[in-house]
# Entry
Amino acid sequence: MEILPSIDFSLEICKRRILALNVLPSLPQHYTETERMMHLGSIVPFENTNMVKATGALIKYIDKKRIGVELEDIETKVPILALKTFSLEDAMMIDENTYSALQIFQKESHPSAFKGGSGAKEGLSLFGMMNMTKSVIGSRLLRVWFRRPTTNMDVLKQRQKAIAFFQSPQNAENTTSIQECLKHIKCISRTLVRMASAQASIGDWQSLYKTVYNAIYISNMCKAIPDVQIAQKIARDFSEDLHRIASLINKIVDFDDSTSQNRFVVKPGVDENLDEKKRTYNGLPDFMTKVAQEELSKLDASITECNILYLPQLGYLLAIPRTEQMKEEKDFEMEGLDFVFFSDNTAHYKSANTRELDRLLGDTLCEITDHETAIMHRLQSIVLEHTDLLLKVMEYTAELDCLIALSVHAKENNYACPEMTEENLLSIKAGRHPLQEIYVTPFVANDTQVDKEKSRMKILTGPNASGKSVYLKQVGLIVFLAHIGSFVPAESATIGITERIFTRIHTRETVSVGLSTFMIDLNQMASAVQFASERSLILIDEFGKGTATVDGLSLLTACLKYWLSAGNRCPKVLVSTHFHSIIQQKLLPLTPLLRFQTMETMQNGDELVFLYQLVDGYTNTSYACHIAALAGISSDLVQRGHEILDLIRNNKAVKRKDSKKNEEEMQRYCGIVNEFLGLDFESADVTLFMKTLLTSQTGQDQNRK
# Structure
């Protein structure tokens, strides 16, 4: 392993290194910089900053070591043949376009313009709905699970087993008790860092104690959970050392006094010397009152009161209020007393008794504080010796929090446990969209069947607003949820391990990339074409609508034929489109891999009723005029749309709506033209004709003429 300097991982520099690649066989040399960026953008997701940094640093390292061309001339470039992405730790790869299209995450900015840049909260998203964790560390880990869906079968089965246990009604009481304890599990990693530098506050000690105390309770409850791996780890690894830490903190730290005094305070009975000092300090007010009374008896009769004060720098002092005789500085001198200073109309002196107090008592409060600080350091050392155990507490309880949160959500929304398999298939019975079903009642569930040798590609046609996009997204979300170990919104599901999910559903437009809407769509399709394997899921919603109809239809057909040509290695592809020519003109080959489906509708007179039920077959129209009427477009415009649509279908010319009036005017104009052509230009008929014409035409007619 070689460690590279951080400058090699600068984002902008790494991006320029990638764009400067000119040795890729797939990259034409005549491309401009903009064209080069468009092409490479379909290979490298530039929004993934860590990937860009790693790629740029790797390119520099390969170029510096001259791997493959060590003995060649210095002008010979390292032959980089291709750029490919692969995942670590069995992770299913999902790009930002897919996260946005499936609404897995969604940031919601603050409505105030003044707070718009201060951060955003989670809006209506899959993560926001399923994040029912009780602790901060649990919420963070759940986000990591959503960001890193896994293809590790063992991990997925362990999570499903845990969710099934906590979902069971007979374990509800135990689950609720664990959740109550999880509320008090804090993120103590920073607390341990501050303890290592002796900067821990009393709030840090309280967080640590609550975490350890509740972790012990969780450990005891997990001993009754034999079939869940994470519970077994907690019961086994939360050893007696955790009890020792909790016992020491409970016996030593006085949290009430610590909170009121805002410092570390030790409980009585911990240290005898400390207790003696505290007893002395607590008895000082009465003792100092007696000393003051003794001093007052020695003073002049004109002095009616005095006090004994303690100042850290000067020790114990005798404070005498100013009398009428104390007018000048020489009047402050008294026999047997040493004048120290005058402040707030009070003179302060040192006497034999105050000097004796200094000798006997000294700085009692500082000694108490120093003694308690020494005890705190010893306690910190014991805690820091068990840093690994405390970090393990955070790790295990966070995982337990996530599993319980997923089980609670699955139970509340009637989710089913999917069967994960190594076979490359997808079978979903009565699948639902996890977000859409919350706001639509009732939600119509649909089945999905993709086998290894047939129905690998489904083409959906149907009216606008019939539920095609929702269906595509629900399939993607069900597959995604299965790969984080969660239950899925369906009656049952058998899901094969999926390596990547590609989508062409949502166009993430932004001025920062400098690409048109259709170019962004093409980049998403290009990524799917280049990197999709037989274990990939591709969701395409109306690709090609951003350009000319013929061009969009051609590109979509070419991509679909490319995937079908792979045979049984064809990825799982779900496409919704309004290009009915694909079916009518038979642009795709007839193969068991291809299946046409549509959203069922019913005609009730002039009204179109959506049934939102997926059935085999296809439709020849999108019913755009019906949808336009539902959207509020006036009936005259909708009727005119129907007329034009019928003319185009029957291959007839589209005429203006006032065509009858136009025909009458054209006949009159033709008569004028024919009369003009029959004139004898050598006679006076021309002049007479022009006068007659000008007097008979209106201003509008003159313009037309």
Remarks:
- DSSP finds 27 helices and 17 strands in the chain.
- The longest helix spans residues 272-298.
